[in-house]
Design brief:
146 residues; alpha/beta; Rossmann fold; 5-stranded parallel β-sheet; 7 helices; 62% helix; 12% strand
Length: 146
């Protein structure tokens, strides 16, 4: 019996979908045909970073529907500790620490949940994966690629 992999979409994937209709269509097909859970870290980033209330409400409404079906991936106390340990190892300078914190928290929670992170930020997550065991792929992987 084959178990379908679980995926989480990074914030930048939602931003890319807002900026490109073909990308948005590919994202919709991917979500419709794969097990995609919602990360609370991504939800927070979208709330903070989306300037348009209309876009924010549409995206967050879609995420609420998606989370109701497959559930969410929310960091646990252990995820926070793993992310903090990664922070100490990866980002000794204060400027980089701020920008990488959410990525570390997202990586730790995806790792624990056994989810593959779909991200346009492959370079940073490749670096993070050296310290936090994380499967990640660039949009849109074939099932056999992950």
């Amino acid at each position: 019996m084959r178990i379908d992999p679980t995926y989480v979409l990074d914030t930048n994937v939602f931003i890319d979908a807002e900026e490109s209709e073909p990308f948005a269509e590919a994202a919709a097909r991917f979500i419709a045909t794969h097990s995609v859970r919602v990360s609370s870290v991504v939800v927070a980033e979208l709330i903070i970073g989306t300037r348009s209330a209309r876009v924010r409400e549409r995206v967050l409404g879609n995420l609420r529907e998606q989370a109701a079906v497959l559930g969410d991936v929310t960091p646990t106390v252990e995820d926070w500790q793993i992310a903090a340990a990664g922070w100490v190892r990866l980002a000794p300078g204060s400027a980089e620490r701020r920008s990488i914190w959410n990525d570390l928290l997202l990586a730790a929670s995806c790792s624990r949940a056994g989810a593959t992170l779909i991200t346009s930020n492959h370079a940073d997550f490749k670096r993070i994966a050296r310290h936090i065991p994380l499967r990640h792929a660039t949009p849109w992987p074939a099932d056999h690629d992950v």
